[in-house]
Amino acid sequence: MEQPTYYHSVMLEREKCKGCTTCLKHCPTEAIRVYGGSAHIIKERCIDCGACIQRCPYHAKVAVTDPLSKILDYKIKVALPAPTLYGQFKGLKDIGRLLDALIAIGFDDVYEVARGAEYVSREIAGRVAHRKVHNGMPLISSACPAIVRLIQVRFPELLDNVVDVISPMEAAALAARKRVCRNMSADPADVGIFFLTPCPAKMTEVRAPQAIKTSNVDGVISIMEVYGKLNAELKRARHFENLQHAGAYGVGWAQTGGEMLAVGVENSLAVDGIENVIQVLESIENGDLADLDYFEGLACVGGCLGGPLTFENTYVAKNRLRKLTERLPKISAPEGEERELSPEEMHTQMLFQPNPAMKLDDDFAVALRKMEQIERVLADLPGLDCGSCGSPSCRALAEDVVLGHAVELDCIFKLKQKIQQMSKQMVDIAEMTRK
Predict the structure, then answer these.
(1) Which burial class, exposed, middle or buried, applies to 253 when counting CB atoms under 10 A from its CB (0-12, 13-18, 19+)?
(2) Cα 155 from Cα 158, distance rounded (Å)
(3) Which backbone phi and psi does 64 adopt, to 5 degrees?
(4) Which of 37, 164, 211, 427 is most buried, with most CB under 10 Å away?
(5) What is the pLDDT of residue 374?
(6) pLDDT at res. 363
(7) Torsional sign, CA 309, 312, 316, 321
């Protein structure tokens, strides 16, 4: 059987790692181990949420994104600014000025991801309204790629509930390419579409898409990469074009609850922070939220505004975005002939597939025996989940032992106990020799 390939934007710079174990305690899929004095990322389990980037005190975890210079590979360069970008700049009162600054740093056109979010919102609202089978579980947002991958790894039973609508980024990219080719009579191959991202998971979504065959995005550039250049351009006084078209609902997607508000489903729930999302997904899986219609889960605290590739403090950015949205009209994406994307184009091309990274074995009988072994090993461990062994918990160490990746004596308490036993034996031998 052909093994799946994994692309990841979250990488480890081993020379910076001090083996402190901070990262492994906060990884939601237990994808990190520490041995030999350094962290190691298990690629099959990593969902590129960026939690380790935010937690690492030595900055050893980094996100690999495209440099701004990549736009030079294309004749026509289009920027897709995430609405998160709007909250990064002090004193910004007109989003149009920021979009014009993107033209000034080298782009030829701008298409707001917030506009794509308006299209997506309408499609999701239709899915919820016309859903015929509830199956005791709510529909789940597909907007946060880290949460979708989390479900693939830890909650595969919920994949059928993930809404089959493309992300705002993909919707914006598709609409942008169509518009540029139409207005400029351009060859699609000459058009480069670049998403300005607040998180590494979007880079992974583009390079290894889950629900479409090929991403409509040609490159992903970190907000941190362009922040300085944009900030400098914003300080220059000049005439600018009105490139801003999205309304308050689309821009509001950047923060927790923004999608829920834009979709307009009253019986819905929005949760941020991956640990909190895991708790809710467990409740959904157990049937405790059978009366809920829609769930919006976001990996970062504060939503995309809290992404690890942003410049500004989450709460400062949230306040700025609030002020900006208050000035915007509450509009939806255009209908009829003015509509840029058809309902068919908004539909995902493939079903989300489970990632069996946390399975013990493909053979159920073998997996059951391994589970029994894990329980026996676990019963003999201290249960402190200290992480000193290099595994995130005692259960994870027990799994690693059974799978052959570790030994029980990696536990410092077991090792101490063994040393004490050996010391006592040596004393006993010494006393017997003297006699």
Answers:
(1) buried
(2) 6
(3) -95, 115
(4) 211
(5) 93
(6) 84
(7) negative
Determine the Cα–Cα distance for residues 389 and 395; give it in Å rounded to an integer.
12
Specify the residue for token string 């493939």. 350
Helix 364-379 vs helix 394-402: angle between axes, to the nearest 10 degrees? 130
Q: Which residue has the tokens 């994949």?
A: 159
Planar angle of CA 164, 170, 173, nearest 5 degrees: 150
By the 8 A CB rule, do 294 and 213 touch? no
Q: Residue 26, class by beta-carbon neighbours within 10 Å (0-12 exposed, 13-18 middle, 19+ buried)? A: middle
Measured CA to CA, the distance from residue 435 to residue 431 in angstroms comes to: 6
Q: Categorize the per-residue pLDDT at 334 as very low, low, confident or very high, splitting at 50, 70 and 90.
A: low
Q: How far apart are CA 392 and CA 389, in angstroms?
A: 8
Triad 124, 130, 131: Cα angle to 5°: 85
298 DSSP β-pair partners = 272
E strands, 242-395, are 268-272, 294-298
- How many CB atoms within 10 Å of residue 435? 4
Our measurement of the distance from residue 434's CA atom to the centroid of its chain's CA atoms, rounded to an integer in Å, reads 66
CA geometry: angle 235, 238, 242, nearest 5 deg: 105
Tokens standing for residue 6: 């994994």
User: Which residue has 């605290």 as its token pair?
Assistant: 301
Per-residue pLDDT tens for 306-328? Answer: 999 999 999 999 999 999 999 99
| CA of residue 315 relative to chain centroid, distance | 19
DSSP 338: G
Contact (Cβ atoms closer than 8 angstroms) between residue 63 and residue 8: no
Round to the nearest angstrom and report the end-to-end CA distance of the chain.
Answer: 65
Lowest-confidence pick of 73-77, 247-251, 363-367, 400-404: 363-367
For 297, phi and psi rounded to 5 degrees?
-115, 135
222 phi/psi in degrees, rounded to 5: -65, 145
The backbone torsions φ and ψ at residue 343, rounded to the nearest 5 degrees and listed phi first, read -55, -35
Q: Can you tell me the distance from the alpha carbon of 56 to that of 51, in angstroms, rounded to the nearest whole number? A: 9
CB 315 within 8 A of CB 302: yes
Identify which of 179, 311, 170 has the alpha carbon closest to the alpha carbon of residue 243.
179
